[in-house]
Amino acid sequence: MLRAAYFIPLVLFGLFAVLAGFMLTQPKDEFVESAMVGKPLPPFDLRAATGDRPGVSLAHFTDGEPKLLNIWASWCLPCIAEAPQLEALDEAGVEIIGVAIRDRPDAVAAFLARHGNPYSRIGADDLSEIQLEIGSSGVPETFVIDGEGIIRYQHIGDIRPDDVPMLLEKLEEARS
Amino acid sequence: MIRFCALLLALLAAPLLAQGAVPPAPYAYTQLDDPELEAEASALMHTLRCLKCQSQSIADSDAPMAGDMRHQVRTRIEAGEEPEEIRAWLVERYGDYVSYEPTVSATTWPLFAIPAVLLGLVLLVLGRRLGRRRSESGQ
């Protein structure tokens, strides 16, 4: 009886070692998800990031129509990869509002000339202020915003071709 | 082929340099004038996680986003906000993960409770054993 009791700590340690070993083999989730999903966008007002598209403020998200808020930058490589998908979403009739992070007007214009311009408006965020406000931790990220300006969904990383139908569905859900 | 060349060119284009072409936020690398406020900001910055480089604090990181977070912390401290208010503001947006300061919450309470329970158990066992020995030697 007493002998068996001596093995309890060993068994506990063994279980812990197995658990730790298992967790070490699991890939680490590197994304920090926003805790702002379900909450409203904050009031903000961003100047235009480039000459041919106006700037962005909260009012542009509260006209009743769900929209995509795309956080990107001309210096960001995955943003090039997602450009065709944004184009497809634009063609599907989705309004995409862009926010360019730490960018220069000429660099933004050059990027749009080269990779297409699916945006109705592009605001410039030089201090990552909007990013921090909505809990975004990198570029590119895409948020589904409903007609009242509530954040409904966050997509981290570039939009792959498979993600397009999913985003369209999220936009549809945001109507209800 | 053209695509491949474009990709190669894109890699050569040194996107990091382009990123660096925009000057950092005013308070990313500039301390506050008031040494007391700067000390407060610095203490807070050492306990906030950089979101781009998650094993560094924003005080340690040179990532542009960490610079923007330092700017955010310093301007808020200068405007009179308490460090814990700023931490709460960030936790509200990014979850507990953004803070290195351990807190007791629905998921973390066992970390604090288990050592206390173990200590209690040890004291209990020890107390009973010593008590028994004392009563044995007393007889």
Fold blueprint:
The complex is a heterodimer of chains A (176) and B (139).
Chain A lengths: L1 H24 L19 E2 L9 E2 L9 E6 L4 H15 L4 E6 L3 H11 L3 E7 L3 H5 L7 E5 L5 E6 L6 H11 L3
Parallel strand pairs in A: 3-4, 4-5
Antiparallel strand pairs in A: 1-2, 3-6, 6-7
Chain B lengths: L1 H11 L2 H6 L14 H11 L18 H15 L4 H12 L14 H30 L1
Note down, in words, how this protein is organized.
The complex is a heterodimer of chains A (176) and B (139). By secondary structure, chain A is an alpha/beta fold. Chain A has helices spanning 2-25, 77-91, 105-115, 129-133, 163-173, and strands spanning 45-46, 56-57, 67-72, 96-101, 119-125, 141-145, 151-156. Chain A has a 5-stranded mixed sheet with strand order 5-4-3-6-7. In chain A, strands 1-2 form a two-stranded antiparallel sheet. Chain A is elongated, with a radius of gyration of 22 Å. Chain A starts with a helix and ends with a helix. Chain B is built from 6 helices and no strands. Chain B is elongated, with a radius of gyration of 26 Å. The termini of chain B are far apart. Chain B has helices at residues 2-12, 15-20, 35-45, 64-78, 83-94, 109-138. In chain B, helix 3 (35-45) crosses helix 4 (64-78). By secondary structure, chain B is an all-alpha fold. Chains A and B meet through helix 4 of A and helix 2, helix 4 and helix 5 of B.
Low-confidence segments of chain A, given as residue ranges, are none
In which range does the helix fraction of chain B lie?
A: 55-70%
End-to-end separation of chain B: 96 Å
What is the string of SSEs of chain B from the N terminus onward? Answer: HHHHHH
Concise overview:
The complex is a heterodimer of chains A (176) and B (139). With 176 residues, chain A is of the alpha/beta class.
